[in-house]
Design brief:
The chain is of the alpha/beta class and about 240 residues long. The protein contains ten helices and six strands. It has two domains: about 5-15 and about 105-230, 3-Layer(aba) Sandwich (Rossmann fold); about 20-100, DNA polymerase, domain 1, CATH 1.10.150.
Length: about 240
């Protein structure tokens, strides 16, 4: 059984919290700041389809890379147009970025990651723009040897090229690397394609999607990760 020398972490809903409903709170602030005659629910309802479409099309290999900022700004532009609002999509997206960059870590994050760092090298790989990822990382007490965002690489998870790029930069092989994330598609499937050992963080006991790989290793909290690594991982 290969020894794990390197652990790569996902960011959102793995290290930091991003609970449902926080987006609508940001939208309510945007509406108030811009004096828009609508509700957070209505704005969210018309913005969400653009975000969902972005989540599907962004992994198409032949499609030009689009950042979160550009995609979300386009969603605001479309929402304002449909709702006949004189809104500022640029300012709305900037506000949304600021709010997202302030997501707090889970209670166990700093201690668990610090414990892992006594055993392994650590890195971070996130589908994110640096505009909200980098300031959000400053809220953690721990750092990482290497950080790679989708914006830097111009590639989104679960495409294997993104994982390969980080492995190459770290100079490690897939069989000595674990990837810790909360999403079955982007994290578990993405890492599995490269032969990386995937570890699924499933805090709320979500059911498995039957059409995606079943995670070999599951934890309900990052506090379980050091002991799992000590036991050894096998694909």
């Amino acid at each position: 059984m290969p020894r794990i020398t390197t652990v790569i972490f996902d960011m959102y809903e793995t290290l930091v919290q991003n609970p449902p409903g926080t987006g609508k709170i940001s939208f309510a602030k945007i509406i108030e700041q811009q004096g828009l005659n609508t509700t957070a629910d209505k704005l969210w309802e018309h913005w969400l389809p653009a975000n969902e479409e972005f989540g599907i099309t962004r992994v198409e290999p032949d499609r030009p890379f689009q950042s979160y900022f550009d995609a979300w700004k386009g969603g605001f532009e479309r929402s304002f147009s449909i709702l006949k609002l004189d809104g500022d999509a640029q300012a709305a997206t900037e506000h949304f970025f600021r709010d997202l960059s302030k997501r707090g870590p889970y209670p166990e994050t700093d201690e668990a990651v610090a414990d892992v760092q006594k055993r392994c090298r650590t890195a971070l790989l996130s589908n994110a723009d640096d505009g909200f990822l980098m300031p959000n990382l400053e809220l953690l007490q721990v750092g990482f040897e290497m950080i790679l965002s989708s914006e830097q690489a111009q590639i989104y998870k679960p495409r294997p090229e993104l994982f390969q790029l980080l492995l190459s930069r770290l100079g490690v092989s897939p069989d000595e690397t674990a990837y810790v994330g909360d999403r079955q598609l982007e994290d578990i499937f993405g890492a599995s394609q490269m032969g990386i050992h995937p570890i699924w963080v499933n805090r709320d006991d979500r059911p498995l999607h039957p059409d995606l790989p079943t995670p070999t290793h599951r934890i309900s909290s990052l506090s379980e990760l050091p002991k799992l690594l000590d036991k050894g991982l096998a694909l």
